Description:
The chain is mainly alpha-helical. The chain contains 4 helices and no strands. The termini are far apart.
Amino acid sequence: MEGREPTTEELLEAVRNMKVADLLLSTAATLAQLGFAKLDEPTRDLDQARLAIEGMRALLGALEGDVPDEVLRDFNQVVANLQLAYAAAADQAPKAEPS
């Protein structure tokens, strides 16, 4: 059966069995990757990186009590690392000239 496309019913069953917490954790991980990518010098976009940080913080707050504490601790450490990287990138950003 390998190599065949799943049926519509199989896809629906997979969605029915999916946990929202798992999807939120996956989304938080994706936001972290995207946030760090937006801090890379060639593709730097501080507004988008900030939005990724804020999105992660919101998702992690919603997950409190629904996932193990150590999982939240690890993701909160990723947020802290992303915030530090954001601060370093913002410090390197060209300063606007005073008017």
